[in-house]
Each structure stands twice: as structure tokens, then as C-alpha cells.
Amino acid sequence: MKQTKSKRRPPLIIGGQTIAAGTRAEIRLKVSETYFGDDVSIHLRVIRAKKPGPAVFVTAAIHGDELNGVGVVHELLCDPDLELVRGTLVLVPVCNVLGFEANERYLPDRRDLNRSFPGSPTGSLASRIAHTLFENVVRNCDLGIDLHTAAIQRTNYPNVRGRLADPAVKRLAEAFGAELIMNGDGPEGSFRREAGAAGCPTICVETGEPWKMEPAMVQFGVRGVRNVLIDLGMMRGEVTPPPYQTRITRNRWLRAKVGGILRFHVAPGQIVRTGQDLASNFTLLGEQRNVLSSPCDGIVLGMTTLPTVKPGEPVCHIGEPAMSLKRIEKALAVSRREQPEINRARRHLATSIHQVAPTPELGTEDASAAS
């Protein structure tokens, strides 16, 4: 595959520190101060090969409670065998340091850092942090990987998101090695959208739950970052492909129609067909009230992990793949025999969901009514 051209900008200066080719640097970017006047800083490591090549950033915890990405970057930071043959790698384990310390998704002012880019040096706390991160990391890189998890009380089956009309984003998304790829610019002010607009094509990777470093999700992320670096010629090695790879052409959340306690019939990553039971809703005393069914053939992209719901709350996220379900099932059958490690993420996520067989007494509701 044709190599991505790197921008000519020697020497590399981040946070006022010059990083020469063939060296590593630990950098702290001051983004705020405590009530005591002490510095609050984003920690990052810059690794530069002797040979020129693309500059790639990997960021995590823009939402402070999304720890799987932190685990991914931490594994890369602790890996003594991580050696670049060309280019530059910028690793940022925690972007939202204030949210991370408080185990909170947002900043202390309740603003979402992932809606605050590219930021301003004279704006709100969120805007100032975004500006510092953007100017020092994005402006110095050619490509980016931004690691996320689902929101609170939800889980996501591993997937990659990006503006696939951009060839560089498409290449990153496919090289990462996720089974599922979703097209989209991202919300206004989000890191990947604004980085792309600034000339640094960036993908968003979604894996698992917040508040956890899930081993299978971390392994998936580490493998994906390595895949990208190998594909770009920045590292030696062989790319690890997924069992299959397809775009999601449409996705939708199915929401609870009534309140109660859910009994799930599917797990993240599972193939479902039109009319298939997804979850049954029961009263506290065990009376079945209704059943949510799938309105389409698709794949379970994500689910609530909280089994109690009120009307209108999200239950199951279904994506419609471009690839036929028969082809996906055939590919998965082969991978179970030849690549058992690839299926670890699917098995892990299934353990987070209490999955039971549908109750036969109550017929499944019409899909349009259930959704």
C-alpha cells in the first residue's frame, strides 16, 4: 500500500521541548491549575525513529471515565519491544486529567471535552484544555487514533468510526482491524472531526464499558494500534486481520417501551435477524410485559449493562452491515477454528450480559411498536 507522506516540520517541538530524530521524550503539557496554584498537566511520551515517516498520535480518556483506552496506551508505553523503524509516535494516556482523577466523564465545569475542540487559549476550562492538546498534538501529527468506550451503563462491541470519504481515514479504519466500521464525521467540536478538518485524519475507536480496563478490549486496542503502525511502515511485523470486516450502513437504538427489569436474549457482537427477540421486560414480581425484537437483520453494536429501565431508555444498538449475514457467519466459523484469540472480545463482552432464552408464553411484539 502506498505510504502516507509525512509533513516536513523539523525540528519537532511539543510543549516547548525539542525532540530530535532517534530519541524519546516525556513531556507534561500544563493545561490548568489546582485551587492551590499547582500545575495540572497532560502527560505524554513522544517516540521518534531515526528515519522520517508519518507522525501518529494515540489519545485516550478524553472522557475521564473511559479507561480501556488508557489501558491500551499504558500497554504500549510499558512495552520494551515497541520500536519504530520510521516516523513519530505520540502517546497520550489521559487527555481529560481532571475527569480522570474524579472518575467522571466530564470536566469539573460539566463541559464535555469532546465537544470543545479545537478550543481557545482564553475560553472556558474545557476550551483551554482542548486548545493546548490540539496545538501541541494534532498540529504536530499527520494521523490520529482516538480511543473511547461506551457511555455510562452501556457497552460497545469493538468498532471504528471515521469520515470514510477521506482516503487517509479509510486506510486507518481498515488497517486497525476491527470487524465493524462506521462512517461519519463525528459531532461538531469532537476531537476526530476537528482534527480531520485541521488536516490530521483521525479515527475514533469504541470498545467496551467505562470505569474498566477490560483485558480483551485492551488487547484488541493494542493489536489495532500495532496494525496501523505496521501498515504505515512505522513498525516491522505482520498485520493481524479480523475474521471479517464490513461497514455498518445504518444503525439504531431500540428503546424500552415500558419500565421494568430486562432479561437479555442477545449479547454484543451477536448476529440477529428481523423479528428476533432481543430482550424481555418483566415487572419486579416476575410478570412479563413485553419483548423487544429486532426490526432488521444486523449485528448488536452495543447494549445497556443496566437491567432496569424506564420507558424510552436505550436497550440495544443494532447495526446493519453491508456484508451479508451468511458471509459473516461463514467467516466467523472459520475464525473459531483458525484464530481463536480473535474471538476473545466477543466472549468477554457476553459475560457482562445475563443472557437467557426467550420466554415462549408471550409472543414477540411487532418490531415497529417495540422500537
Automatic annotation (TrEMBL):
A GO molecular-function descriptor: hydrolase activity, acting on ester bonds
Alphabetized UniProt keyword annotations: Hydrolase, Metal-binding, Zinc
InterPro entries linked to this entry: AstE_AspA_cat (IPR055438), N-alpha-Ac-DABA-like (IPR043795), N-alpha-Ac-DABA_deacetylase (IPR053138)
Domain of life, source organism: Bacteria
Gene3D superfamilies in the cross-refs: Zn peptidases
CC cofactor: Zn(2+)
Pfam families with a match to the protein in the record: AstE_AspA_cat
Ranges where the record places region Disordered: 347-371
Domain annotation Succinylglutamate desuccinylase/Aspartoacylase catalytic: ranges: 52-229
UniProt entry tagged with the keyword Metal-binding: yes
UniProt protein name: Succinylglutamate desuccinylase/aspartoacylase family protein
Organism: Synoicihabitans lomoniglobus
